[in-house]
Task: inverse folding
């Protein structure tokens, strides 16, 4: 459900670029690609054992001693 809002926001940014610049800005293209790729890969990667081990290790490092 959250991805619907994210993709709607990206479409609004692209529409604003088209309206104001008459083209899609290069940064908008790269940022849109980055957001779409991270949105689509967060579930498949986030549920793997190596990722969970890495996340546990980072949490261990961040705990106050």
Result:
């Amino acid at each position: 459900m959250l991805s619907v809002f994210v993709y709607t926001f990206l479409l609004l940014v692209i529409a604003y670029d088209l309206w104001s610049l008459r083209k899609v800005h290069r940064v908008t293209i790269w940022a849109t690609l980055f957001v779409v790729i991270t949105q689509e890969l967060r579930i498949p990667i986030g549920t793997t054992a190596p990722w969970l081990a890495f996340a546990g290790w980072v949490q261990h490092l961040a705990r106050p001693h």
Observations:
- Residues 26-46 form the longest helix (21 residues).
- Helices lie at 2-21, 26-46, 49-62.
- The chain has three helices and no strands.
